[in-house]
Design a protein that fits this description.
Ergot_Alk_Oxidoreductase; NAD(P)-bd_dom; NAD(P)H-binding protein; single chain; two-stranded parallel ribbon; Rossmann fold; NAD(P)-bd_dom_sf; alpha/beta; 7-stranded parallel beta sheet
């Protein structure tokens, strides 16, 4: 039995589809706040545990008999702080992992372990501490060590379409890894189906090559057939934008601290190996995901 958290989210949804659609016969259980958000054809093929995977009763029910768990902490900008959002949310799950003797967990985490920047990297610091918490539950654990996501650029569809501008707090000429969520899901599904790995380790998912945000704007311009430029914004403006999205002050600062750490090289310490290099290029992602979103009628 494989348990999938966040099965309606950007990554969890794709993990679930891979587990169901790749011809595997492994039974799947999902933890979902609102089962109605699952497509009917998915609900018919999985066991559903309704509720939050931060709830002790929910994880106790979900992890009973589990052979592997896909763990992803859902975003909670309104949380009192990153330790609450990541560590306190995960503690009930760790107790359930121990109680039920779950052998393996694959978790969504971040790059940067062992770097000087990681100690003051906001959400990344909390995410790495979450990895240690899960590993301490006595499971075999693989932390997916992730850079920035191409898919996060979808948050700026309106400004890309209406202003021809991509905004961000990082230097435009900083080359760093960037990956697509489809590739994260592929790696996660492979690990969840593999019963041979043991111990605690991280698995980097780095995309096909390092890119800059100036590169991203150039590729967008070519794919969309309209000029797009990258504009760096000050730290205070970035923090204000996160606050405007409903974040608490500590979470907005944690988001900013993560970006400042990335700007200082947080994501660049991981060596690029063939195993860490994933296939989806930024151009392919822009053609298949961003362009349809930009060209869709504005709501």
């Amino acid at each position: 039995m494989i348990v999938v958290t966040t099965p309606t989210g950007a990554i969890g949804r794709q993990v679930l589809h891979r587990l169901l659609d790749d011809g595997h016969r492994e039974p799947v259980r999902v933890v979902v706040r609102d089962p109605a958000r699952l497509p009917a054809e998915v609900r018919d093929r999985v066991e559903v545990v309704a509720g939050s995977h931060g709830d002790p009763a929910v994880t106790d029910a979900a992890f009973d008999g589990a052979d592997a768990v896909f763990w992803l902490v859902p975003p909670d900008l309104a949380a009192p702080g990153p330790d609450v959002a990541y560590l306190d949310f995960t503690r009930p799950a760790c107790a359930a992992l121990r109680r039920h003797g779950v052998p393996r967990v694959v978790g969504v985490s971040a790059l940067g372990r062992g770097t000087p920047q990681a100690a003051h990297a906001g959400l990344v610091t909390a995410s790495l501490a979450m990895d240690d918490l899960i590993a301490g539950a006595g499971v075999h654990y693989r932390a997916l060590a992730l850079p920035s996501f191409m898919d996060n650029l979808l948050r700026q569809v309106a400004t890309i379409r209406d202003q021809g501008v991509l905004y961000g707090p990082l230097a435009g000429d900083l080359a760093a890894p960037m990956c697509a969520t489809r590739d994260i899901a592929a790696v996660a599904a492979r690990l969840l189906l593999d019963r041979t790995w043991t111990g605690v380790d991280s698995v980097a998912v780095l995309g096909p090559r390092d890119v800059t945000f100036d590169d991203a704007a150039r590729v967008m311009s070519e794919v969309l057939g309209r000029p797009v430029r990258y504009q760096r914004i000050p730290a205070d403006a970035f923090r204000a934008g996160v606050l405007a999205r409903g974040a608490s002050a500590p979470m907005a600062q944690a988001m900013l601290d993560m970006m400042l750490a990335k700007d200082a090289g947080l994501d660049n310490a991981e060596p690029r190996t063939p195993a860490a290099t994933t296939p989806t290029t930024l151009r392919q992602w822009c053609e298949e995901v961003l362009k349809p979103a930009v060209e869709a009628p504005a709501r």
